[in-house]
């Protein structure tokens, strides 16, 4: 398949840290889950750090009348939207307040935590997927942020999958580096050897490598080195997140209060969350996920029909309506992991 359209360097930083704002929000999954679990263990010491340093996304959700309800098997599950956007300057403030802006979502992940809390499933959605955006007709899904901010992104995805999102999260570029370095590096089993196309030109041999923050950042951002471009980039992102989980969710980390405190304090300033995702909510979720380890974190990319061209000449990813319907059914029955298994995904 052809590679996706060129992505724009992205920027979202807390108001107090606006210099060189850059966002790659796919790493928030790792940061969020690690913070959730460690906050569950050390909430008294960490609550002030988390609540005081994270930025809140005001008005993250659309009007209640437009939203699906949680019923039956899905009522105890949690769904979290992880977003990346190409903010510029003060437009980050507009996006965080739910207004339309000049942003576009760089990366999207729907994170599903089932009611039994036995695993975590993260579903990547290709940013150029051509979909119906409420009130705006058909467009790339990453344009929803520009059209109507975070609430429209939520409304678009909830409409696609007929499932309710409980939380929304954003993480800054520097937060990705921070969590990697705070962990003392992350071991990644590199599937394909390549040299990154950035100015640093990191070389990655196939096989296990220990990466620092700068190296890991290059690893998960690279797409030009691969014949299928964005597709391999997404696979690398998923692989790296699993590696973060494997590193963070070990006794060496979880039984070390000083390391946990440093991890949360280093990462929190680069994280934005909806107003309901405070330290208490993180602690509650963390306790419920106490038995989850890296091997229980599953990932796949929403199936699509490949690349194509829209009527107005844009390079797009063609959505697979059957796959979207299958995911919707799986979310409704709280069986997304089973859907993955039955369809050979991941």
Automatic annotation (TrEMBL):
Source domain of life: Bacteria
Protein name (database record): Transcriptional regulator
Family indicated by similarity: Belongs to the LytR/CpsA/Psr (LCP) family.
All copies of domain Cell envelope-related transcriptional attenuator, residue ranges: 104-248
UniProt-listed InterPro entries: LytR/CpsA/Psr_CW_biosynth, LytR_CpsA_psr
């Amino acid at each position: 398949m052809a590679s996706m359209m060129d992505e724009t360097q992205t920027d979202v930083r807390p108001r107090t840290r606006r210099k060189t704002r850059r966002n790659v929000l796919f790493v928030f999954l790792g940061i969020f889950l690690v913070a959730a679990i460690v906050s569950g263990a050390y909430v008294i010491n960490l609550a002030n750090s988390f609540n005081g340093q994270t930025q809140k996304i005001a008005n993250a959700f659309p009007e209640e009348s437009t939203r699906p309800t949680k019923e039956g098997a899905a009522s105890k599950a949690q769904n979290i939207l992880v977003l990346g956007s190409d903010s510029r300057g003060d437009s980050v403030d507009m996006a965080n307040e739910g207004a339309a802006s000049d942003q576009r979502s760089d990366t999207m992940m729907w994170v599903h935590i089932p009611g039994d809390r036995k695993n975590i499933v993260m579903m990547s959605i290709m940013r150029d997927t051509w979909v119906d955006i409420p009130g705006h007709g058909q467009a790339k899904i990453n344009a929803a942020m520009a059209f109507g901010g975070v609430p429209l992104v939520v409304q678009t995805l909830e409409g696609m999958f007929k499932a309710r999102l409980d939380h929304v999260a954003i993480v800054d570029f520097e937060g990705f580096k921070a969590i990697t370095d705070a962990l003392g590096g992350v071991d990644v089993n590199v599937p394909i050897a390549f040299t990154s196309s950035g100015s640093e030109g990191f070389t990655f041999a196939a096989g296990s490598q220990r990466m620092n923050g700068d190296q890991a950042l290059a690893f998960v951002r690279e797409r030009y080195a691969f014949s299928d471009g964005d597709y391999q980039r997404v696979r690398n992102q998923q692989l790296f997140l699993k590696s973060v989980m494997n590193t963070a969710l070990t006794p060496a980390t979880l039984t070390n209060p000083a390391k946990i405190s440093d991890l949360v304090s280093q990462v929190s300033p680069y994280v934005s969350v909806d107003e309901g995702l405070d330290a208490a909510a993180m602690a509650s979720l963390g306790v419920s996920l106490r038995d989850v380890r890296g091997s229980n974190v599953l990932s796949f990319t929403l199936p699509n029909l490949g690349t194509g061209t829209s009527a107005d000449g844009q390079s797009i990813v063609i959505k697979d309506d059957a796959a979207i319907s299958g995911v919707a059914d799986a979310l409704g029955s709280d069986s997304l992991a089973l859907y993955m298994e039955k369809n050979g995904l991941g």
